[in-house]
Amino acid sequence: MFINMSRVQQIIDKLSTISAEQGELTRLAFSPEDQIAHNYVVELCQGHNLQIRYDEIGNLFIRKSGTEDHLPVVAFGSHIDSVVNAGKFDGPLGSIGGLEILLQLCEQNIHTRHPLELIIFTCEESSRFNYATLGSKVMSGIANQQKLSHLRDKQGNGLQQALTNIGLDFNKIDQAKRQANEFKCFVELHIEQGPRLENEQKTIGVVTGIAAPIRCIVNIQGQADHSGATAMHYRHDALLGGAELALTVEQAAIDAGHSTVATVGNLTAKPGVMNVVPGYCELLVDIRGIHTGARQSVFTALKQQIEIISKKRGLQIELQLISTDNPILLPDNMIENISRASQELGYSFEMMPSGAGHDAMHMATLCPTGMIFVPSHKGISHNPLEFTEWKDVEAGIKVLQKVVLEQAEVVG
Amino acid sequence: MFINMSRVQQIIDKLSTISAEQGELTRLAFSPEDQIAHNYVVELCQGHNLQIRYDEIGNLFIRKSGTEDHLPVVAFGSHIDSVVNAGKFDGPLGSIGGLEILLQLCEQNIHTRHPLELIIFTCEESSRFNYATLGSKVMSGIANQQKLSHLRDKQGNGLQQALTNIGLDFNKIDQAKRQANEFKCFVELHIEQGPRLENEQKTIGVVTGIAAPIRCIVNIQGQADHSGATAMHYRHDALLGGAELALTVEQAAIDAGHSTVATVGNLTAKPGVMNVVPGYCELLVDIRGIHTGARQSVFTALKQQIEIISKKRGLQIELQLISTDNPILLPDNMIENISRASQELGYSFEMMPSGAGHDAMHMATLCPTGMIFVPSHKGISHNPLEFTEWKDVEAGIKVLQKVVLEQAEVVG
């Protein structure tokens, strides 16, 4: 079935220019530019027989009715919010790929028994609130109002304020929860964000499971002192405590095996000037894997090292757990559906886990869920150098299209 | 001779409220609040027979003529700019102590053969431009317009802009250079900013030499990648390179001995979010000592480790030398003058080096220079908890007064 690649390319390129900063792509969730991007996608649906709906947390649903519209929905989608200084494919690929599938059905007047829903999840990236996949977590009931009241962005604003700014009511977000029996299945198309497909020279990744993060903030309180007049043995240098913990996190991830990864995404020292021993330090820590035990071993190593370093350096160290998502295995039937579609379309494919978290992870708690990867050049992502060839983008959309239409059952 | 301690205390307390932020003391050089503080000090001189002059870099001179006014000046002073979230004694002690000495002479109608100059040096702290003792460096010819054109503050503004904002002309700053034969001597009174006097239960520190910093910025370029999808062995994590270098700097200072100290005052990672492997990192490094060889060994260790880490982690690391000040030994006659004054006034005293850099370091290249320390509680400085007992403040001012008046030769 036809895919209009020039339209897909044009929309993805246009989205990449909707940004908080000229010359880079920065579109944090709930920001004015995120709203502009949403409005742009909704505009593209005008004149087609598609129903537009936002839920109470800000997820966007673009629905095409089925001929038997009471049947469970065949859903697919991704997100369009971004990290700071992002690449243009992370999120928009699955969102605009899904939109293209709906537009083709409308233009070619093709109908399905099951209704179709393109879901553009809100706040998938953790860059706004140090909290990822917010929209799908609320939709699947994994997060709720009570659990989210502590979220704050870098400016100290809460989720409540962010929702108010776009006309939503924080007190109603629990109404965004959906029921399992509403969905027949969910499929997400995404770039790999790792180098495996490129290294293996495969076009399609059939995702078997999704690694999930443990996220925490480490607060280190030492003592600010004059950097010239304070002898080394009198110091309580919070930055050095943070440096040791960052290296601990790295080594523990290497030791853990099972493709476990761990990252200190930021280290902030205060007062942060040349001539003062840093009295305070904060670390953002993200630990991921599909092997729960291996992942936990990194967290345990961090906790043990906090004990050791706080004693050794005379520091007060607090570990604040932000989120613990469970890694999930995707169901065999969805893995088979995607493999078969790839094979029938003549694309090489590879079974693989996803190192990155995705909204599919939470949708998998509601309904049979599958995930399709296409190659990321050198594995680079969350970076302007993120790149996927357009022929691979097309391959991904075609596999998504085939799986979705088989599940939704084309009529006549 | 009398010192009006209630006036000294009142002025130091008043200065501590002139700040960029309510509830803390932050008075960066050349800022509006720094100007307000200067104007306040100048106002206190009104009605007395004192001459006020600013030089081309912004140093403030408060002069009392001598009966033989052509004789070389007996100078003393300190600074009133501060670090971020500072204590109230670092700088104001020697500045306001010196002012009190001048005010007493005016009020008691006492004259000296030599003219007296209280110098309030501009931009002593490196917190504005990562560059310390700017005013005294320009005054002594150690820095000049050409060497200072690269300076930038955290907002990216240059020294030229900062000077323009307060009505000075960057193109004229070399005219602030003074000649050695203009000065008979210089004496600076300052808090110790270390715990030695308190630990030794001494009131006065007679400074024998001043440690000086090597300062540099380390720029680390790695690769920003998705923190979930990038295996540990594919990463080029700039933050972890920075963490290793920070710990190297610490260990090298411990190994160097000779009271050498070294500090990474700040580590900045970019993009600095939870879900991206940091692609960039910057360190501010300050290495100090009075033993040049020991100090150099830390710098050498840093350079060697940069080689090792850049290869090991696949990082591009640049070391940018910001300043190298020479440690100095203060002349025996000034050490003896201060010791004798302390003894005659009945104060216990201790010979000691200064770990912190001071304007006295550069004045020592122009004329015989001495330095007087008073105790800092627990050695805390560059911190709101900085504390010196008022009786020790008085002791320091009295020793300064005695030395200055002996040098300036009270008439009749």
From TrEMBL, chains A, B:
What SUPFAM superfamilies does this protein map onto?
Bacterial exopeptidase dimerisation domain, Zn-dependent exopeptidases
Q: Which InterPro entries has this protein been placed in? A: Amidase_Cbmase, Bact_exopeptidase_dim_dom, Peptidase_M20
* Cofactor info, note text: Binds 2 Zn(2+) ions per subunit.
Q: Which cofactor does it need?
A: Zn(2+)
In terms of CDD domains, this protein maps to:
M20_bAS
Task: Print the keywords alphabetically.
Answer: Hydrolase, Metal-binding, Zinc
Pfam families xrefs: Peptidase_M20 (PF01546)
Sites binding Zn(2+) 1 sit at: 79, 90, 190
Q: Which residues bind Zn(2+) 2?
A: 90, 125, 382
Annotated allantoate binding sites: 215, 275, 288
One term of GO molecular function? hydrolase activity, acting on carbon-nitrogen (but not peptide) bonds, in linear amidines
Q: Which family does the record claim for this protein?
A: Belongs to the peptidase M20 family.
Show the PANTHER family listed in the entry.
Answer: ALLANTOATE AMIDOHYDROLASE, ALLANTOATE DEIMINASE-RELATED
The protein depicted here goes by the name N-carbamoyl-L-amino-acid hydrolase
Q: What is the species listed in this Swiss-Prot or TrEMBL entry?
A: Lonepinella koalarum
- What broad taxonomic lineage does this protein's source fall under? Bacteria, Pseudomonadati, Pseudomonadota, Gammaproteobacteria, Pasteurellales
